[in-house]
Amino acid sequence: MTLAGLPGLPPRRCAAGGTPTSVRCADRIVAGLDHPLTWPPMGIVGVGIDVVSIPDFAEQVDQPGTVFSATFTPGERRDASDKSSSAARHLAARWAAKEAVIKAWSGSRFAQRPVLPEDIHRDIEVVTDMWGRPRVRLTGEIAKHLADVTIHVSLTHEGDTAAAVAILEST
């Protein structure tokens, strides 16, 4: 029987028997017993996480002279002002994402001297697609250092807390 219709897999025969959508057949394919899945070699090179107190962040975000005044791009500020929830809540999650990316990158350089300047946050922009899914766009020095890396990011809000996780994957 062929396994047409499985995303990303060419039609294959299932030696396990059963229908192409049966658990027995699908388990063998996922396990690689009937169809070895081959992807380009990739690996996780860094993981970062950051948690932000939204009330504390809200007190500081618009104060002149704080690190936050030059941290966010015009696009990030525009997106925050367009949201029905508070702009501080939205920006707190973006700050957490920027910090998570820096931590993931820094962790990938264990026992090596840091090469990025301290004020790198503006070069890490969190953008969203039309469905609100976040993605990281890099510019400046960090873009050069992470040119061969895919960044996966996840943001969340719960109560007075915003958090983000960033995973750097070699490509």
UniProtKB/TrEMBL annotation:
Recorded GO CC terms: cytoplasm
Gene: acpS
Enzymatic reactions: apo-[ACP] + CoA = holo-[ACP] + adenosine 3',5'-bisphosphate + H(+)
Main localization category: cytoplasm
Necessary cofactors: Mg(2+)
UniProt record similarity statement: Belongs to the P-Pant transferase superfamily. AcpS family.
Organism: Mycobacterium simulans
Residue positions binding Mg(2+): 50, 99
EC number of the protein: 2.7.8.7
Lineage: Bacteria, Bacillati, Actinomycetota, Actinomycetes, Mycobacteriales
Subcellular location, record wording: Cytoplasm
GO biological process terms held by the UniProt record: fatty acid biosynthetic process
Gene3D superfamilies, A to Z: 4'-phosphopantetheinyl transferase domain
Alphabetized GO MF terms: holo-[acyl-carrier-protein] synthase activity; magnesium ion binding
Protein name: Holo-[acyl-carrier-protein] synthase
Source species, domain of life: Bacteria
All residue ranges annotated as the 4'-phosphopantetheinyl transferase domain in the record: 46-149
The entry's keywords: Cytoplasm, Fatty acid biosynthesis, Fatty acid metabolism, Lipid biosynthesis, Lipid metabolism, Magnesium, Metal-binding, Transferase
